[in-house]
Amino acid sequence: MTAAVSGLRAWAVEGIGEIAQGTDLGALLCGLDLAEGDVVLVTSKVVSKAEGRVRSGDREEAISDETVRVVAQRGPARIVENHLGLVMAAAGVDASNVTSGHVVLLPKDPDASARALRERVLEETGHNVAVVITDTAGRAWRTGQTDLAVGVAGLDPLEDHAGRVDSYGNALSVTAPAVADELASVGELVTGKLGGRPVAVVRGLGSRLLPAGEHGPGARALIRPREQDMFALGAREAVMAAVRGSDGDCFGAPAAANELVRALASCGLSGAIQGGSVRVHLPESARDQVTAAERVRLVAHAHGWRPRSDTALAASVTISPVAP
Asked: Is the Cβ–Cβ distance between 152 and 180 less than 8 Å?
């Protein structure tokens, strides 16, 4: 299948065949009819197979081994952060298109794999191309899946529009198209999921390529830092983390004092800003103080604050932001 839009062409490569451990994937790419400025999209599965990232045994055990942190779990379904820092279902472990009883893990370092393939193509063909290694993932607020970039070499994965002005004269501040992810989705459109075509080529984006020898920051630049992630835990998991008083970094940077005061008020607690702290008034009865103090702790934890250790349970409790 070939697609073309305003000078941009994308097509799936036919005849790649089965990839196994030890397959020289670089040689296969060098054998393609590539041109200067092409973007070569390769599925992570064939990169993993070539690199020996296939293991036998239980899929759930493999997911656990690849998991750094569980983001959300409902029944057997797990969304986790894996060793690459990617948040995705099943840690990216895949049991499709592989021998029964085996699973495919993501490449150990997809950015390094992309760099190696790009350098190989340049060395053997003289063409400066970009390489994007892709994988399939869901989206938090939408059904269905799209492909995204897990490894990138030869182009900037983000196009930062901060400081630019739109056609109406409005300044742009946070607009940053994820170019590498958009290319990954283009590749999936032309290869399809069931066609057995793990490589695609996009032509017409030569102006985006970095000079030979400059690989760029890689796909890792697309991973949102945890302190900026408003959804670092699932709803159920966030409640449990607050009750346990754990996973504080999953709630983001400490909230502003006035934001915390508003949150306390929404829970029936009266707080006042005093310098860099917030003092919360507790009920008069000792029994109600215990309940209110625990509510203060939970609200504070979810906002990156904590009660001062020298605060005794009495008419009030002082809370301060957690030091970064």
From this structure: yes
pLDDT of residue 174: 63
Distance separating alpha carbons of residues 23 and 17, to the nearest angstrom: 11
Q: Which tokens hold the place of 178?
A: 């994820």
Instruction: Name 295's Cβ contacts closer than 8 Å, sequence gap at least 6.
Output: 267, 268, 269
Query: What's this model's pTM, rounded to 2 decimal places?
Result: 0.88
d(CA 105, CA 94): 7
DSSP 164: -
Tokens representing 211? 């000079």
Element (H, E) at 296: helix 286-302
Helix-then-strand count for the chain, H and E? 8, 15
The pLDDT of residue 146 is above 80: yes
Phi and psi angles of residue 171, each rounded to the nearest 5 degrees, phi first: -75, 135
Which residues are 11's β-sheet partners? 2, 201
C-beta of residue 82 within 8 angstroms of C-beta of residue 106: yes
- In a 3-state reduction of DSSP, which class is residue 215? coil
